[in-house]
Amino acid sequence: MGRAGSALKQVLETYKISQNRLATALQVERSVVNRWFHGQVDPNGETIVAIVQALRTLNATAAERFIQLYLGDLMRPTNATVQLRPSQPADLDFVLAAEQHPDNSPYVWQWSREQHLAALTHPDIAHLIIEVPTRQTPVGYVILIGLQNPNQSIQLCRIVIEVKNQGYGKATLKQVKQLAFQTYNAHRLWLDVKVGNDRAQAVYHDAGFIIEGTFRDYVKTPQGYDSYRIMSLLRPEYQP
Ligand SMILES: CC(C)(COP(=O)(O)OP(=O)(O)OC[C@H]1O[C@@H](n2cnc3c(N)ncnc32)[C@H](O)[C@@H]1OP(=O)(O)O)[C@@H](O)C(=O)NCCC(=O)NCCS
Fold first, then answer.
1. Tens digit of pLDDT for each residue in 84-126?
2. Which ligand 1 atom minimizes the distance to the CA of 168?
3. Structural domain of 218
4. Are residues 24 and 68 in the same domain?
5. Alpha carbon nearest to ligand 1 atom 29, residue
6. Ligand 1, from 73, 79, 94, 165: best to mutate by most atoms within 8 Å of Cβ?
7. How many domains does the chain fold into?
8. What is the pTM of this model?
9. 98 and 57 fall within a common domain
10. Among 75, 138, 177, 194, which one has the highest count of C-beta atoms within 10 angstroms of its own C-beta?
11. Exposure pattern of 45-64 as b/e (b: 16+ CB <10 Å)?
């Protein structure tokens, strides 16, 4: 199967977009989409542009994911920059979809809409949307807890980046450290990460976090027990 067909198949399955819906949005026969889906023909350059436009009308995140899967590492910016802004109630559809997505849900705690909504205005919590200048839709969100902690200990409670391996996670960690140590005067910034979540651990290690220890068999799941690493960064170790 060609690269575009394979990317399209993955996106339609992940975001539960039927071949019919895409065919209607593209104004082509369903059999055309079906041939791409099954790798019998790969869409060409102009058609790929039309697919992106059609996907944007159905699901903007799916469109971004298609571009990322199709272009792969060519899309990776050499110096990714991100902007963090306070999440708004209107962002919660994005936040919940990202949190519940099968690529992310095994690694992050799940909150209800009400829990997220309450966090938006909680004085101890920073609930932030991650954006990049070149993309129309957010790339992720991050939650910090403990802004008013008397021990100056802030927890990086959650981070989800939808558009993975583009450097946005690392760029976000840079800003999270700045927020914690410079804006909120933290002494300690810490997090837990599931053992086996090697990508997240690589990002935290790169940001200077050290492993403090392991909560062994900390969470019970239908498959068994998951262990979690505690990682932290202290103010004297912080390098802007
Ligand atoms: C973890 C997460 C936040 C990282 O964000 P990201 O934007 O994908 O990360 P980046 O692109 O900035 O960096 C990823 C790094 O991990 C590396 N990496 C990717 N997969 C890896 C793996 N399996 N093992 C080790 N390193 C890995 C990449 O090579 C890259 O490092 P490099 O820049 O030196 O090449 C994001 O992938 C995510 O949301 N994952 C699902 C949810 C989650 O795990 N959240 C954290 C819970 S603690």
1. 999 999 999 999 999 999 999 999 999 999 999 999 999 999 9
2. 7
3. 83-237
4. yes
5. 165
6. 165
7. 2
8. 0.76
9. no
10. 138
11. eebbeebeebbbebbebbbb
